Amino acid sequence: MIRQRRFIALVTLVRTLKTKGGVGAAPPTRGSTPAPHSHTSGIKKWVSAVSTGVIGLMLGTCVLSPLALADAGDPNGVDNRAEPGWGLWFPRSQIAGASFDSGFSNMELGGFLDFEQTCGSLSGLSSDQIDYWFRVSTSVYRMGTGMVEFGCWKDGKFLNTYSSQAMFTGASNVDCLTVRPNSSNGLNIRAEPSTRSRIVGTIRSGSRVRTSGSPASIVEAEGRNWVNIRSPIAGWVSDDRPDSDGNLVLCDR
Question: What is the pLDDT of residues 6-35, one digit of tens each?
């Protein structure tokens, strides 16, 4: 809550300074519900797409399911299918209930403000007319850290998109991960995020690891997501491909 308040206050200050300097605009809204620019949002219940094939966002008393019928003109297409490794796109006006936090640096904050300004320039629309959408990578709710992507939609396509790191806020210990029982050999811990890097240790399936930080440090290399851990041995472990079920899950799942 403290981070959220500080982040919103910082965004407001930056926008105020830019507006007074003649280069900014009022915060974009969609309909009558402003979207929080801390991107702090919440998902009350998230059902894994791997185990159930359904990922829903609980927004008040309304559950949005990927199986619901999508409009032909929205980013999910007529088939209403999410891309591998991602959840469905949702209007940004519905972000207030999603359980993730983002905007962990001034660089990410500045990037988001630039994204909004570019959307306004490309669309030729006022801030309250721009059609903003967002989606969250499935790893956010599976292992606590992932990505959120925003886009401004017009005439059947995205004019501009922006991605930043996201962290799940619905778990008490997002730095604790469990190795899934995908392999009897467990996972190798490597000195660097590469299959060619030196093996410094091995962790068994079902074992717990601690990430090097919160949110976790994740690097994509060789088509895999690599997670930096501090225990039981400092190093990097593979979470497999971004569109896979993953090798790691939150400890309280």
Answer: 344 344 433 433 443 333 333 333 333 333
